[in-house]
Amino acid sequence: MPWPSRKRDKGAVADKKEPDAKIAKTEEETPDKEEEEKTKPPAGSSKSGWKNWKKTKESDSGGEESKITYCHWLLKSEPESRLEKGVDVKFSIDDLKAQPNQTTFWDGVRNYQARNFLRAMKLGQQAFFYHSNCKEPGIVAIVKIVKEAYPDHTQFDQKDPHYDSSSRKENPKWSMVDVQFVRMTKRFIPLSEIKAHHLAHKADGGPLKNMMLFTRQRLSIQPLTQEEFDFVLSLEEEKPH
């Protein structure tokens, strides 16, 4: 493949302005600046936006609240070139679209919690494709899971930057899934905008109040509830603030 180990748990390596982590093995130890950024929601806009979204959802569902289960995902990948052990780990949404059948494996994850999320993914589930570690991080597209978890071959490749000498073929430590491009979001949804809603929802109980993008920032594989996914997706219909 032309982009070996381009998706790893440095989603980890994350955004230049808001780094998630430097390398997967130190992901939990690297200070995160995402929460330190003082992004404030526009006055009244996020709260009213949530109320309008909630009113629409209640109308559609008869007022029933969604069950709190993880059924969607957010996958971070770096759209700009960065060498890791001599290998360029860049992989943008355009790179995915250029793959045969617009499908590829999501390899290089080296964090146990992120790996467990990979193993929990089900065929057909959708995920946001998130550009990370770049000038303006955010959501650019939707992809879907087309093959459930299986052993990540890069853990056995000594030339790969994510080679793991402690992993054994008879009992592999690391897994990957296959994903396929579904569509671009109608507009780029920046991290700053999502965070503005998150901060407002922490105060008023909106659907993004516990979004893992802000509670476990360094993970490159993150689960989303139905409410979180639906609300973020609804933002593509709004004009950016």
Automatic annotation (TrEMBL):
<keyword id="KW-0597">Phosphoprotein</keyword>
<keyword id="KW-0539">Nucleus</keyword>
<dbReference type="InterPro" id="IPR047197">
    <property type="entry name" value="THYN1-like_EVE"/>
</dbReference>
<feature type="region of interest" description="Disordered">
    <location>
        <begin position="1"/>
        <end position="64"/>
    </location>
</feature>
<comment type="function">
    <text>Specifically binds 5-hydroxymethylcytosine (5hmC), suggesting that it acts as a specific reader of 5hmC.</text>
</comment>
<dbReference type="InterPro" id="IPR002740">
    <property type="entry name" value="EVE_domain"/>
</dbReference>
<feature type="compositionally biased region" description="Low complexity">
    <location>
        <begin position="41"/>
        <end position="51"/>
    </location>
</feature>
<protein>
    <recommendedName>
        <fullName>Thymocyte nuclear protein 1</fullName>
    </recommendedName>
</protein>
<dbReference type="GO" id="GO:0005634">
    <property type="term" value="C:nucleus"/>
</dbReference>
<feature type="domain" description="EVE">
    <location>
        <begin position="72"/>
        <end position="234"/>
    </location>
</feature>
<dbReference type="InterPro" id="IPR015947">
    <property type="entry name" value="PUA-like_sf"/>
</dbReference>
<feature type="compositionally biased region" description="Basic and acidic residues">
    <location>
        <begin position="10"/>
        <end position="28"/>
    </location>
</feature>
<dbReference type="Pfam" id="PF01878">
    <property type="entry name" value="EVE"/>
</dbReference>
<feature type="compositionally biased region" description="Basic and acidic residues">
    <location>
        <begin position="55"/>
        <end position="64"/>
    </location>
</feature>
<dbReference type="InterPro" id="IPR052181">
    <property type="entry name" value="5hmC_binding"/>
</dbReference>
